[in-house]
């Protein structure tokens, strides 16, 4: 009986928050969406700045900030890398759980050696820059829905530039896109976005874990994530602890 009560309370809690979430969405720079599994990320292997092959799904960090760009980009790419590094710093100790990743859309010029010099211009030590064969990078871009195009630019020394989409993608450790940020989102806004997500996820998992052991039931990881995203979606984090404690009291009666 207690199991049913807990399940129903959590479900109603999530539905109620989801009902109000659409209002909050309109005012956010973060686009919350259904988690999207990126199969290509789970199997792709690219080269880092040491010219070593790195399986993307082995990159450490509970969350990854992924940005597609190129080293000759004059404005948006440097801005994105500064913002991502700033977000890591803003998180403080939690920054160790966040890994910013820069993936080249210009393999013709972006060798591991060039990227090694490029990333040294930006603050922080966690930034990872990756490149690879054009076919590999194209497949990865397609998996993310990223579009890039080589454009003739005779006025430039190399004779071309690359037009590309400017989004920062947030991936979890299961190769799923949890949210996206438009290019130009500053570090504080990034931190606020997934920083709250970190906090809410921890509270929900702690609550479910303690009650699962006590009442002998299990809730799937997907359902946990739905609860977390509904709470985050509604921007009611300041009420989470109170509601969870009330629910815990109900289940113990």
UniProtKB/TrEMBL annotation:
Cu cation binds at residues 73, 77, 164. It comes from the Bacteria. CDD domains: SCO (cd02968). It comes from Leptospira borgpetersenii serovar Ballum. This is SCO1/SenC. Gene3D superfamilies: Glutaredoxin. The keyword Thylakoid does not apply. Keywords: Copper, Disulfide bond, Membrane, Metal-binding, Transmembrane, Transmembrane helix. Disulfide bonds join 73-77. Belongs to the SCO1/2 family. InterPro entries: SCO1/SenC (IPR003782), Thioredoxin-like_sf (IPR036249).
């Amino acid at each position: 009986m207690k199991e049913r009560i807990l399940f129903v309370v959590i479900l109603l809690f999530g539905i109620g928050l989801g009902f109000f979430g659409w209002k909050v969405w309109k005012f956010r720079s973060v686009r919350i969406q259904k988690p999207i599994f990126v199969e290509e990320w789970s199997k792709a292997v690219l080269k880092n700045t040491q010219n070593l092959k790195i399986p993307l799904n082995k990159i450490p960090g509970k969350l990854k900030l992924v940005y597609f760009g190129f080293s000759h980009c004059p404005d948006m790419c440097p801005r994105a890398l500064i913002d991502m590094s700033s977000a890591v710093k803003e998180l403080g100790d939690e920054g160790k759980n966040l890994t910013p990743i820069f993936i080249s859309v210009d393999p013709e010029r972006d060798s591991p050696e060039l990227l090694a010099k490029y990333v040294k211009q930006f603050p922080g030590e966690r930034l990872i820059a990756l490149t690879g064969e054009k076919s590999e990078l194209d497949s990865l871009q397609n998996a993310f829905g990223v579009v890039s195009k080589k454009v003739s630019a005779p006025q430039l020394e190399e004779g071309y530039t690359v037009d590309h989409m400017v989004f920062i993608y947030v991936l979890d450790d299961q190769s799923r896109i949890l949210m996206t940020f438009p290019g130009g989102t500053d570090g504080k806004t990034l931190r606020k976005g997934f920083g709250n997500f970190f906090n809410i996820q921890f509270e929900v998992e702690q609550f479910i874990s303690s009650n699962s052991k006590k009442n002998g039931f299990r809730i799937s990881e997907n359902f946990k994530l739905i609860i977390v995203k509904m709470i985050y979606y509604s921007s009611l984090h300041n009420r989470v602890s109170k509601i969870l404690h009330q629910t815990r009291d109900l289940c113990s009666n």
